[in-house]
UniProtKB/TrEMBL annotation:
DUF58 domain segment(s): 42-242
PANTHER family per record: BLL2464 PROTEIN, DUF58 DOMAIN-CONTAINING PROTEIN
Pfam family, one: DUF58
Protein name (record): DUF58 domain-containing protein
Source species, domain of life: Bacteria
Amino acid sequence: MLSPEVLHALRNLPLAARQAVEGFLHGQHHSRQRGAGLEFSQYRPYQPGDDLRRLDWRLAARSDRYYLRESEVEASLTVHLLLDATASMNHQDDNGLAKLDYARLLLAALAYLARQQGDAVGLTVLHASGHQHVPPRADTRQLPRLFHALEQTTAAGRFPAPADLQSLTARAQKRLLVCVSDLYEEESEIRGLLARLRATGAEVLLLHVLAGNELRFTYRGALTFEDLETGRTVQLNADQQRAGWLSRQQQWLRETATAARRQGFDYHLLDTAEPLDQALRVFLQRRQAAL
């Protein structure tokens, strides 16, 4: 698997998404159902009302019996991608890759993978003034729409107010919602939104994205840290604070994971320094469970 840093360096989101997914799908077991797809499965006797175009006329000529060729088609659903584009997502790892860069790569790859599975895919970008929405579709022009929206996304401000997000809670059948966020919030506003969406019947896959230097606190010496959303600053000695930081962070991550799973979310922590394969695998597993 190519690293996120290499994929980002391509500066071509459609190509990066295809490269990330291309090798991953090989050997994967897809969820399938009987239907009129392209891959032959078996024969079954003709019944009145069946589509005669699926009748095997050669077999009928040889045996004087009428059989239809049954195929396998992949089951599909609606996948709704949700991107946290608040200012904290601008935080960069030591390699210069921002959490927003990683999130864009990840969501582009998930969109590509979902279309490969035959799903309708949509995208909502959450930002300070509300949200940008690309309605779910399954047509051939949807991926370029999604890639363009992701490429144009910038991170700024704080999480939007609940009143600005009411339209997101519309009920949809067979919907899998995938949220990518760093979960930096003041009063659980992100998880509050996901809980409301979960209450509409959506299956929620929460991908918690943090940079490697956040997870491992790789900073050295005396530094000034700035909150990207509030502008508040704090001065500290990284070497002196490392043990306490890591201890408090691990406690926060445990509490976050426990709370998310208690709310019915499928929660996974992702490191921006790691390839996308874990998230793609988790997505396929959750997709199969949602069908």
